[in-house]
Amino acid sequence: MSSQQKPAQDTAEAPAGPRPRRLTYAAVLAGLEGVALVAGGLWVLVLGITGAPDDRQQAVTLGVTLAVLALLPLLAARGLLLRRGWSRGPAVITQLMALPIAYNLLKADSMAVPAGAVIAVVAVAALVLLVNGETTRALGIKGPGRAE
């Protein structure tokens, strides 16, 4: 690399000061969702391999898919903890994907109703934390027409 070239840097530097608690809470919720997806994916994968599912290939595919989908909230959680502005998008997407899942679980007439309630509460709480003005400022996100 020549002396005139500069290495690519991440987007704007995070504002100075301590990380707001709301941002930390949002990161923790996103991280917990990621861990839950990994655990669920591994559980389905192990049951698909060792158990007697109706369709072994479908069970294995679901387990792998859940484990891979866990990357989205886990990366978002890491980005939120590091105060990266890009991380809010994946975190919001994760919460928006969780809401229809929670709704369907709440409509079920089974033991899935408590799980649906937990998913709904976590998703709504995380969304509130993510769109909060303090979180937005901590991530260095500027609204429309506020570019400097």
What is the fold's blueprint, element by element?
Blueprint: H1 21-50, H2 56-69, H3 71-81, H4 88-107, H5 112-131, H6 133-138
Short précis:
The chain has helices at residues 21-50, 56-69, 71-81, 88-107, 112-131, 133-138. By secondary structure, it is an all-alpha fold.
Beta-strand content: under 5%
Total helices: the number is: 6
The succession of helices and strands, N to C, reads HHHHHH
Structural class: mainly alpha
Helicity level: 55-70%
Mean pLDDT score, rounded?
87
Q: Roughly how many Å apart are the termini? A: 31 Å
Overall geometry comes to elongated
* Largest sheet composition: none
> Which runs of at least 5 residues are low in confidence (pLDDT < 50)?
6-12
Tell me about this structure.
With 148 residues, the protein is mainly α. 68% of the residues lie in helices and 0% in strands. It has helices at 21-50, 56-69, 71-81, 88-107, 112-131, 133-138. The model is unreliable at 6-12 (pLDDT under 50).
Distinctive features:
148 residues; 68% helix; single chain; mainly alpha
